[in-house]
Write a structure and sequence with these properties.
about 575 residues; alpha/beta; six-stranded mixed sheet; 23 strands; globular
Length: about 575
């Protein structure tokens, strides 16, 4: 979009229906004629893998009452078309971010103005509780205001369908089309307060009980496990301490400095439990009191980071693939011991996650279903299998996990409970989560994964990311660290090419802008532009046999060196 086109687009926000405050802010952007004007208006904010997420402010490419109002008006129009004779209900939740509460009320107002009942949580609640509430309350859709682990200036908007999962085809495209067709002057903000219901404790109680029922397995001596927990100033403080207490975990130490919800996230650079720095206050407390396990969750409580004691009794942060492997193995084992496995069960993972999950499931004769990145696709697998196959659990490398099908999105509440259950079970057997992970490596191979995210902000950044993907498609790598590339999976064209034979096969998944190289020695390298952040992500997975757990340090070092060589070879460092 040219500078003149951006200016003309911005000028449309200087008159009604935009309010005086908005007009004033837009005029300032025009007067200053800086890059913020371009960034605010060069495009309309789009739905990505995690919905709509962006910086708060005025403009079509910003989160504000008008872009959220437009999205909600489009959703309302689509719901009315899809269920023309139904009394519609939509559940709404919001997290600790700035403006989340007021924006959630505006979203509720647009719904009630369109004769749709809005069930709005009284205060901040976790994303998994919103997913649960959609099904529990018989809603036709759900909305949560959150920007997950993004910086404080961000907010976002995720839409859920009546199965409790985020929207997938065909609904996502049709909703986006509806949203795109809504002019800002056609948003109905005139609330019908008679259609607004405030919800809270009555949903909390049922959700918490369901979490305990799904995340625990009669493990004794839970009160002997010493836990450090941090909510990183987020919403999990509303649920996690309660479910831990309900389950019998009594030795729980909360990081007080991070206990209060705060959209500024004042004690961390980033409220992302994937990053060791975010959990430093928690690990420091754990070292001080000799805790067995450390758990931290992100602002909307769908991701979790876990630190456990290694063989030298030092705290180490597990990555998402490791956590997912331990959880999946434990869940399948529990189903097996309970006599519940009959061949109709499955676990789920995503295309950029570790292949170790498939190895683990295979050892129990359980099917693994692999889907695109994002828990909306795992939820879609559950919906498709409903009544025919049972979902045990599943996750992806981005520090998220789903225990059972009572929630249809990643759930750090129940996953926190499950992590503590596994730790307590291991402690009863003179083991640890870390030792259990090494046992899995010894049995199935030592898989090591790594992730690099390159940030490319703004319009120029988006073009750079696009060009990187074009180059990797048109000039694919022939060798990676000396091993020939055997397969190139192009999920945008839905074609897998055997680069050694030229044979092409179809990929039976929805189209997505992802490339995966797989070599003869089992190395996997994936490239994927983020759907929610101005980043392109590169995922690396390498593996070697682990003959005995005592060799873990040596094998880990060899695999780390291999990943470092690949990163250097691809000029990504």
């Amino acid at each position: 979009m040219s500078t003149q086109q951006i200016l003309e687009k911005a000028k449309q926000w200087l008159v009604a229906p935009f309010d005086a405050t908005t007009q004033e802010k837009v005029q300032k952007l025009i007067d200053n004629n800086d890059e913020n004007l371009t960034e605010s208006f060069y495009k309309d904010m789009e739905f990505g893998t995690g919905g709509m997420r962006g910086i708060m402010g005025v403009g079509t490419n910003r989160i504000n009452q008008y872009t959220l109002g437009r999205a909600t008006q489009g959703l309302a129009n689509y719901l009315r078309q899809t269920f023309p004779d139904k009394e519609l209900k939509v559940a709404i939740a919001f997290d600790c971010r700035h403006n989340s509460k007021s924006l959630a009320k505006i979203v509720a107002d647009v719904l009630t103005a369109n004769n749709i009942r809005a069930l709005l949580f009284e205060d901040l609640r976790t994303t998994p509780e919103l997913s649960f509430a959609v099904r529990h309350l018989g809603c036709d859709a759900g909305i949560v205001l959150t920007a997950s682990h993004n910086p404080p200036e961000y907010n976002g908007y995720k839409v859920y369908w009546n199965d409790g999962g985020q929207i997938v085809p065909p609904h996502d495209k049709k909703i986006i089309d509806e949203v795109s067709s809504v002019n800002f002057d056609k948003i109905n903000f005139k609330a019908n307060e008679n259609l607004l219901n405030i919800i809270g404790k009555e949903v909390d109680d049922v959700f918490n009980k369901a979490s305990v029922a799904n995340g625990t397995f009669n493990t004794p001596n839970r009160n002997k496990l010493k836990i450090v927990f941090t909510s990183l100033h987020g919403t999990s403080i509303m649920s996690v301490p309660k479910v831990l207490k309900m389950a019998g975990f009594k030795d729980v130490h909360i990081v007080k400095e991070q206990e209060k919800p705060d959209g500024d996230f004042p004690t961390v650079t980033s409220p992302n439990p994937e990053e060791p720095a975010a959990l430093k206050m928690a690990t420091d407390l754990a070292e001080k009191i000799g805790a067995d396990i450390v758990i931290g969750t992100d602002p909307d409580s769908d991701r979790l980071g876990i630190a456990v004691r290694d063989l030298d009794n030092k705290l180490v942060l597990l990555n998402g693939n490791q956590t997912m492997a331990v959880m999946t193995d434990y869940l399948i084992k529990q189903w097996h011991e309970d006599g519940r496995l009959n061949g109709n069960q499955f676990v789920a993972t995503t295309i950029v996650s570790t292949n170790l999950i498939e190895k683990i499931a295979q050892s129990y004769n359980v099917v693994t279903k692999v889907c695109l990145t994002g828990f909306k696709w795992i939820a879609d697998l559950i919906r498709e299998a409903e009544g025919e196959q049972e979902f045990i659990g599943g996750g992806e490398e981005s520090f998220g996990y789903m225990v059972g099908d009572f929630i249809r999105d990643k759930d750090a509440v129940t996953a926190t409970l499950l992590a503590c259950e596994i730790a307590a079970h291991a402690k009863n057997n003179n083991s640890t989560i870390y030792k259990e992970l090494l046992n899995l490596y010894s049995k199935h191979g030592y898989y090591k994964e790594s992730l690099i995210s390159l940030t490319k902000k703004g319009m120029d950044g988006a073009q750079q990311i696009s060009q990187m993907m074009v180059d990797m498609r048109n000039s694919p790598l022939k060798n990676i660290d000396g091993s020939p590339v055997e397969f190139l999976f192009d999920y945008e064209s839905s074609i897998c090419t055997n680069l050694l034979t030229g044979e092409k096969t179809a990929i039976d998944l929805p189209k997505s802008n992802v490339l995966i190289y797989q070599t003869k020695d089992g190395t996997k390298v994936a490239a994927r532009p983020s759907g929610t952040e101005p980043k392109i992500k590169f995922y690396f997975s390498v593996n070697l046999p682990l003959e005995k757990t005592e060799d873990a340090t040596i094998v880990d070092k060899l695999l780390t060196q291999k990943i470092d060589r690949i990163i250097k070879e691809m000029k990504l460092n």
